[in-house]
Amino acid sequence: MNNEDTHKLETFSNNDITYIYDSSRINIEQAELAREVVEFKENTLKNPAKDFNQIMRSKSSDWLILSASFLLLKKNADGTYSEFNRDLAISEAEPFVKKLPVKDLNRLKECVLNFFQDTELYSTILELSSSKSKTNVSETVLLKLLEQTITKNASEHISNANI
Fold this sequence. Notes:
This protein is mainly alpha-helical. The chain has two domains: 4-129, no CATH class; 131-163. The chain has seven helices and three strands; from the N terminus they run ββαααβαααα. The chain has helices spanning 28-46, 52-58, 63-71, 86-98, 105-116, 122-129, 131-162, and strands at 9-14, 17-22, 73-75. A three-stranded antiparallel beta sheet has the order 1-2-3. α3 (63-71) packs across α4 (86-98) and α5 runs antiparallel to α6. The termini are far apart.
């Protein structure tokens, strides 16, 4: 998905564990998994959650963590890199990314943006990465919850008035 002009190499270390993002080493499985995460997030924006618990259960709020987990490779003690393994991405890379210090957040976003740069999902990633998007998503969810509450209260009021 990237050509040589957009090659990016980043190193992330925490608690003596190191992962790299190397756009030239991403394989098809990694690419497809990362794409699926972003498409899932995009679909959740089109059909907003009914409540916060639904957001948490779906893990749609973790889109950046999940997609980054699929794009990183672990650096071994001997300096080589482990081959990508889907199960290890979920059981090891995802917890690693979650525990990175917040100072690494922008670099992590840049890696995900770099990966999707030459794809049809690039504008979606830009929107998801911006604070404006987060406000719009929050507003959408809150408005939906407010609408449901008003409708429920109105229905209860009408039911009580008919008694």
